[in-house]
């Protein structure tokens, strides 16, 4: 079985690179993107809008000011880039700047122009399960059976995409861990991810440093301490035949995937 691709996270938000002005900010982001690639990231996921619970929205113009120079520089260096955006306009600008993948946490629900843009650019499209913006998603975490409900809602998104002319072969699905989901929901989705995969699309898992992993650590542990649990999930994702894992710390996930590769080799007689 193929090993999942590793998507390295590059958040280009003011709080991620706090020192200096806009220029240093962009330079620091570019350097980090190249570092992620050198550590073995197959794709660098560039995002300019925080989707953390309670985060405020930024304008599409501000988002583009943050991400476009970074995408241009990274693609010029031969890095494969995905753009983490809910805005069709930003997705289009990113495509023109050289991005190969549109990663939309809203699965097309935040911007009515997204599917048309995906169809026009013909880029790979990651459609995540989503129910509402960060300010409201906490109240939307109600399910009868989270896995069946997420599957049904993703299936409805797929049907809508096809109406707009998106090619099914260009669509990757994502269960959206932590987005309108509590810890129990996230574990159910991970444990029964085959039910999401049965929709017939590649699947991406984004568990990295999310809050549900904090429960395994001392209460005051910083988010970076969640990298071990993240790496374990990368190994589990490989076992489950996932297409990609989206992570902050690439080296620890590389170790986890090496363990998977060695186990696969060990199975051969
Ligand atoms: N999670 C975040 C942002 N973008 N994209 C995809 N496809 N899947 C995710 O789970 C996902 C995402 C939020 O995490 P971050 O703020 O730590 O990047």
Radius of gyration: 18 Å
Mean pLDDT, all residues:
94
- Beta fraction of the residues? 5-15%
What is the element string, with H for helices and E for strands? EHEHEHEHEHEHHEHEH
Helix/strand-derived class? alpha/beta
If strands are numbered along the chain, what order do they take across the biggest sheet? 6-5-4-3-2-1-8-7
How many domain modules? Answer: 1
Cα-to-Cα separation, first versus last residue: 16 Å
Q: Can you list the ligands bound to this structure?
A: pterin-6-yl-methyl-monophosphate
**Portion of residues in helices?**
40-55%
Quantity of strands, as a count: 8
Q: What is the CATH architecture descriptor?
A: Alpha-Beta Barrel
The rough form would be described as globular
Q: How does the major sheet shape up?
A: 8 strands, parallel
Low-confidence stretches: none
What is the CATH first-level class name? Alpha Beta
What fold name stands as the CATH topology? TIM Barrel
- Tally the helices: 9
The CATH H-level homologous superfamily: Dihydropteroate synthase-like
List the helices and strands and how they pair.
Blueprint: E1 5-11, H1 22-38, E2 43-47, H2 60-76, E3 81-84, H3 88-97, E4 101-104, H4 114-121, E5 124-128, H5 146-163, E6 171-174, H6 183-191, H7 193-197, E7 204-205, H8 227-239, E8 244-247, H9 250-267
Pterin-6-yl-methyl-monophosphate (PMM) binds next to strand 1 and strand 5.
């Amino acid at each position: 079985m193929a090993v999942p691709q590793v998507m390295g996270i590059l958040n280009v938000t003011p709080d991620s690179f706090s020192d200096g002005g806009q220029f240093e900010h962009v330079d620091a982001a570019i350097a980090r993107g190249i570092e992620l690639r050198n550590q073995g990231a197959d794709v660098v996921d560039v995002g300019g809008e925080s989707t953390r619970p309670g985060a405020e929205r930024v304008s599409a113009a501000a988002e583009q000011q943050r991400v476009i120079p970074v995408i241009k520089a990274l693609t010029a260096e031969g890095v494969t880039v995905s753009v983490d955006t809910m805005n069709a306009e930003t997705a289009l600008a990113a495509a023109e700047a050289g991005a190969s993948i549109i990663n939309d946490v809203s699965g097309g629900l935040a911007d009515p122009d997204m599917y048309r843009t995906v169809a026009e650019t013909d880029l790979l499209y990651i459609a995540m399960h989503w129910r509402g913006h960060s300010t409201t998603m906490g109240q939307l975490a109600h399910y009868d059976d989270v896995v069946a409900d997420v599957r049904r809602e993703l299936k409805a998104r797929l049907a809508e995409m096809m109406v707009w002319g998106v090619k099914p072969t260009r669509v990757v699905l994502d269960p959206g861990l932590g987005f309108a989901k509590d810890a129990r929901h996230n574990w159910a989705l991970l444990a029964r991810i085959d039910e999401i995969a049965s929709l017939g699309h590649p699947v991406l898992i984004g568990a990295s440093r999310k809050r549900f992993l904090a429960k395994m650590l001392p209460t005051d542990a910083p988010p970076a301490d969640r990298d071990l649990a993240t790496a374990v999930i990368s190994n589990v994702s490989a076992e489950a035949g996932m297409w990609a894992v989206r992570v902050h710390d690439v080296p620890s996930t590389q170790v986890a995937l090496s363990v998977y590769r060695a186990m696969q080799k060990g199975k051969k007689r």
